Amino acid sequence: METQKTLKILFIGPESIGLLIGEEAYEHGQHLVENVSSPEQAKKLLSDKSHPFNLLITGNRIEGENDAGVDLVRWAKENCPDLQIVLMSVFPNNEAKALSAGADAFWNTSCFVSELMQLIDGLKEKGHGS
Fold first, then answer.
1. Does 17 or 106 have the greater pLDDT score?
2. Which superfamily does CATH assign the domain made up of 11-125 to?
3. Could you please report the per-residue DSSP string of 77-126?
């Protein structure tokens, strides 16, 4: 029997959404989600190589700043090249911007969290970020 890999996920965004994603991720695959509210906090955690993350999930608008998520995606791809990244936004037109910045996937937040879990499963199967 194949054992399922537990992912360590860093979520940047509102705590209420982070808690919802964390609960669903744990039930789905016992994935662990850590929630922070700013890109600076995220960069500090991602820079600590003693506790690496497998996946970064960030909103595009962080702390009221448009495209802060895209900027964080660029920084993460440069500094943590094996990290898988999902950029989320309620605006579908942000998908091209997310992918061109280096995100591995885009999640439209108007969709259910279960769809995010399916997206995470697909990224896990790709194998990098482990």
1. 106
2. Response regulator (3.40.50.2300)
3. HHH-TT-EEEEEES-GGGHHHHHHHT-SEEEETTS-HHHHHHHHHHHHHH
